[in-house]
## 1
Amino acid sequence: MVTNEELAEWIEERQGRFVAVANEIWEKPQLGLGETEACKIHTAELTKEGFRITPNIGGMPTAFMAEWGSGSPIIGFLGEYDALPGLSQKNQATQDPLVDGGPGHGCGHNLLGTAAMAAAMSVKAWLEQSGRTGTVRYYGCPAEETLIGKVYMAREGVFDDLDAAITWHPSDFNNGVKGSCNAMDNIKFRFHGKTAHAGGNPEQGRSALDAVELMNTGVNYMREHSIQEARIHYVITNGGGAPNVVPAEAEVWYYVRAPKRSQVNELTARVRKIAQGAALMTETTLEEDMQGGCFDVLPNYALADLAHAIMEELGPIEYTDEEQAYAKTVISGFAPGTCELNLRARGMPESMLDTPLHGEIVPIYDAGHVSGGSTDVGDVSYITPTLQVHTVCHPTAIPGHSWGITATSGMSIGHKGMLLASKAMALTGAALYLDQSLIDQAQAELKERTSGRPYETPLEPGLKPPVPKEVLAMAK
Ligand SMILES: [Zn+2]
């Protein structure tokens, strides 16, 4: 096995095995840091292929690294496998949860992890058969949806010696990715006051809820004097129990986002001052509970162009009439105008909706674009040149994190996108082993974009990942 075609064929011939893995994970959706099933399945598959496993990275039982080979270059494939709450869905084109309120793969991470695993395995087979030196890794990264896994893994230094990282995300278009995502801080602010009978002796009480409300008011006034791109949102997770009891405890949960990590640092510092001010005004005390934080994504144009050209060579995904009809039914399950608005937000014509599934490779359209969301891929992208590709795994312009994505992630539409992604990633990886100058170019770009500044974790010292107790117990 020495040619590109043979590498893609290696994956093609084993597609039944990879589809079975993706389906099994789809059928057993688990939330971030609790993805014991997916972790077990991936670990078993990689062990079978002769990979060495490093389990339990960063104190997370569902984080692991699988490695094969020796020496350089060292190329890492990043996989994810967490599900989302409330997105359970039957394997059908109309909305109907399999388990009411249950989790589901509404971001297609059952496909994400499996394609990255398949790419790592095929590259291993290729390295072995062609007698090349080099190391290939697969990173089982938990809890992407809560922006935890890769940030804690990065703090352990597991990405430090990579020459490049390769990953992808299920999407509605096939192409290389040059866009970015917002950096973010995720913090809970808890206020402690003094309870009292709200009717009888309110003068004796000090309301923690007042502190939460004043903090939110302060932050809302701060918006006028923040950069345009800042996105700050909160929910009150504890506002007291009854109107006639002055709440002694209250909590508000904030996400602070901006296009660059340094901007988030500045905004969070101001939000913290407002929280302290609220405590001062209400004579309550403040406790901060940082849940996590992540970097913005640093795109790598050299790698994106390389992968995009490879995808063009691989050619479009072909769909059957039944698959197009299935996708059309999914689209029609969303409120009228939803998909049109999603397209417009990306600067795309509404006529794209005439085709429910776009199998062709579309030109890269997101250079310079910063998406409002965040991903922990960002932290890896500041450590090593990081490639992301998109492949079609769901219908055109349907909302992210939706039942529609769960639906198509469990059937042939998702499987076809997964296979294209694994081939594109494997071939891009192989190209890097074959030509050191491609790695040099990608690394020069990273150096230029970061001005050579080393990555520093956004996590406060000593912060531990919030692994559920039962998962910790299972790992012992
Ligand atoms: Zn995702």
Note: The chain has 15 helices and 13 strands.
## 2
Amino acid sequence: MEIEVLEGVFDANEEIARKNRERFLEAGVFVMNLMASPGAGKTSLVMRTVEGLRDRLSIGVIEGDIASRVDAEKLKAAGVPVVQINTGGACHLDANMVSMALPHLDLSRLDLLIIENVGNLVCPAEFQLGEDLKVMMLSVAEGDDKPLKYPLMFSQAHVLVINKTDLLGMGDFDPQVVRKTVTGMNPDIVIFELSCRTGDGLEAWTSYLHDRVRCR
Ligand SMILES: Nc1nc2c(ncn2[C@@H]2O[C@H](COP(=O)(O)OP(=O)(O)OP(=O)(O)O)[C@@H](O)[C@H]2O)c(=O)[nH]1
Ligand SMILES: [Mg+2]
């Protein structure tokens, strides 16, 4: 019985995600869903991505958090069109929350919409939002065993960003271990190693994303 209820929830979400997708296609906006644990560096990557691409692409952001406007205020201060969704306790964004945020953005003016999901390594992967690209981030501080322990997000993502490479060598995180585990479960995944702090490796990421937006 519980399984049926859950399936109903996922089906309803898929239907709204399809409608979101139609709106995105109609507006000609490429949509990226950014997922990771709390503190992995999602907002830092959004800021760096905007910095790197804002002269070439028009970018808007939806910030998903359980509470607060902290992340949205950072982006607003940088002059980025941003809508904050507070889930009020839910550990992920769903398609309906995103659809309610859309009227607050002028989609037809955007080339790229970045959705920063709620910090969580499990639940966001279960809810389609209507996005073109699922990007997940793992930071060096979290440990290289995380793909084994939380496989769902790693197996669904199109892109994995390994962040905080400036911390490599301070612990026992081995990027090769992550690459081997993740490509074993998801052979087509594209992997970037970068540091939002130092800027190392960011150029490869922004140029990949630019091409994805332009070549959709
Ligand atoms: N050393 C280091 N710290 C980083 C890097 N990227 C982000 N940080 C720091 O990590 C902390 C969390 O970064 P955020 O960008 O807020 O992380 P987040 O994933 O958006 O966090 P939530 O939205 O709360 O889930 C901040 O103190 C950042 O300055 C990095 O590449 N290296
Ligand atoms: Mg954040």
Note: The chain has eight helices and seven strands.
